[in-house]
């Protein structure tokens, strides 16, 4: 178990607290509305409410999306939702560390909460660095000067050595928030040899992460099967020399993931039969779902889901499993017609006897929407961080908290 300080180790009364949370949520690309507020509610109910009750002056730092992506939006909406969920007024300022933000922090009274602007609007936020390197930036310096303590509650972003994740830990007393604490405690329980058969299911678009974990879990005989869906399965199909058709191949090029193909090919040759790819897919044709087998590819239509036969095959494997890890939806679940692939995976997990670990913002959103959350063994709010953790990687966000704890002991 990692050694870090928690919120029990600090007195917050009247203190300015910088709390880094992970509010990153699925966003409707058209309306820009938040589709699922699980993460906001969780951080609010646990950490933020507790800080407010303890009369801290709470300053919330968070990110939403990545610069250039459709879900890269300001945090005004997040602040409004937070306020509604915890039933406490929440202030918001469209500034991260400039004069406006600094004034808003100085004006805070005991028990008040302020949400700052999306930290990824600061150009150097996403630059990987050590706590000491980041601590030299204007961003960290300006906010640290005004604060008494840093609370890192963003387990879901702890795999990033970003400025707001690690920067404050070298200049302020730093503790883990309640969500960070809960995740680390729960996850440390599953870092053992999983009960077999063990099935990892990867969907979504984070192909590089999925390939790395596939390599790790197959090489170390952790997983017996890997089931693929989403953009990841398109890449695996491409590695099997399938031509998916113009719009789908263009998406892979756009995502810049074709360079992973040689690694995927090697993995499939070394571990024959262990990695499953769809045998059929669902495309969008004039707004409607239409299925075709992969032998009938290429298609001129975008592929948005796995097909019925694939869901059936995957379901059978899942029902026979003792351990299931599921991260990343099987398709574009935001469109109703393309939800079935992801739903059938959850149905199979729900009726299986397996210990099931569900991760990833979008995956968690779907399981809740489907009303199947109670049927899962453990739901992590993290995606990439969870995967990195399960691979035994050191997470910069966690490591920096451990180092801060060691420093405070000395
Ligand atoms: C997540 O949703 O996994 C975290 O918020 C991290 O987001 P990122 O992959 O854009 O860094």
Account of the 3D structure:
- With 410 residues, the chain is α/β, with parallel strands linked by helices.
- It has two domains: 7-181 and 394-409, Rossmann fold (3-Layer(aba) Sandwich), CATH 3.40.50; 196-353, Rossmann fold (3-Layer(aba) Sandwich).
- It has 16 helices and 15 strands.
- The protein has a six-stranded parallel sheet with strand order 3-4-2-1-5-6, sandwiched between helices. A six-stranded parallel sheet has the order 9-8-7-13-14-15, with helices on both faces. The protein has a three-stranded antiparallel sheet with strand order 11-10-12.
- Helix 1 packs across helix 2, helix 9 crosses helix 11 (261-270) and helix 12 packs parallel to helix 13.
- The two termini are 20 Å apart.
- The chain binds 3-phosphoglyceric acid.
> Tell me about the biggest sheet?
6 strands, parallel
CATH superfamily of the largest domain: Phosphoglycerate kinase, N-terminal domain
The third-level CATH topology of the largest domain is Rossmann fold
Q: Which class of the largest domain in CATH terms? A: Alpha Beta
Number of helical regions: 16
Task: List the domain count as a whole number.
Answer: 2
Fraction in beta strands: 15-25%
Q: Please state the overall shape, judged from the principal axes of the Cα atoms.
A: globular
How would you classify the helix and strand content by structural class? alpha/beta
Give the strand line-up of the largest sheet.
3-4-2-1-5-6
Strand tally: 15
CATH architecture of the largest domain: 3-Layer(aba) Sandwich
């Amino acid at each position: 178990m990692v050694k870090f300080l928690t919120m029990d180790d600090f007195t917050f009364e009247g203190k300015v607290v910088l709390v880094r949370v992970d509010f990153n949520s699925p966003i409707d690309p058209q309306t820009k509305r938040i589709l699922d507020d699980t993460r906001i509610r969780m951080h609010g109910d646990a950490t933020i409410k507790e800080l407010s009750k303890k009369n801290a002056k709470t300053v919330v730092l968070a990110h939403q999306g990545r610069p250039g992506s459709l879900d890269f939006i300001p945090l005004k909406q997040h602040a409004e939702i937070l306020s509604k969920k915890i039933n406490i007024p929440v202030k918001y300022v469209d500034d991260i560390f400039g004069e406006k933000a600094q004034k808003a922090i100085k004006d805070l009274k005991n028990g008040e909460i302020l949400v700052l602007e999306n930290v990824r609007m600061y150009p150097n936020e996403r630059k990987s660095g050590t706590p000491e390197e980041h601590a030299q930036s204007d961003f960290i310096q300006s906010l640290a000067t005004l604060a008494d303590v840093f609370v890192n509650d963003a387990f879901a972003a702890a795999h990033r050595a970003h400025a707001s994740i690690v920067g404050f830990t070298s200049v302020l007393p730093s503790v883990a928030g309640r969500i960070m604490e809960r995740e680390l405690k729960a996850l440390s329980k599953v870092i053992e040899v999983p009960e077999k058969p063990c099935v990892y299911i990867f969907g979504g678009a984070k192909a590089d992460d999925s390939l790395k974990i596939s390599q790790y879990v197959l090489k170390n005989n952790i997983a017996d099967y890997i089931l693929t869906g989403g953009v990841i399965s398109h890449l695996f199909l491409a590695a099997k020399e399938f031509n998916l058709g113009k719009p789908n191949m263009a998406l892979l090029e756009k995502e810049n993931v074709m360079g992973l193909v040689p690694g995927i090919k090697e993995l499939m040759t070394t571990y024959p039969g262990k990695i499953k790819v769809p045998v059929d897919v669902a495309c969008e044709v004039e707004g409607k779902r239409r299925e075709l087998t992969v032998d009938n590819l290429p298609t001129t239509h975008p592929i948005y889901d796995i097909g019925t036969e694939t869901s059936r095959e995957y379901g059978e494997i899942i029902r026979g499993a003792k351990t299931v890890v599921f991260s990343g939806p099987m398709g574009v679940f935001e469109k109703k017609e393309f939800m079935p692939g992801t739903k059938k995976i959850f149905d199979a997990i729900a009726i299986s006897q397996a210990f099931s670990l569900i991760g990833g913002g979008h995956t968690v959103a779907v399981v809740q929407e489907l009303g199947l959350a109670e049927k899962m063994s453990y739901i992590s709010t993290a995606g990439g961080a969870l995967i990195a953790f399960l691979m035994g990687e050191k997470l910069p966000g966690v490591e920096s908290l451990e180092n801060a704890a060691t420093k405070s002991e000395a």
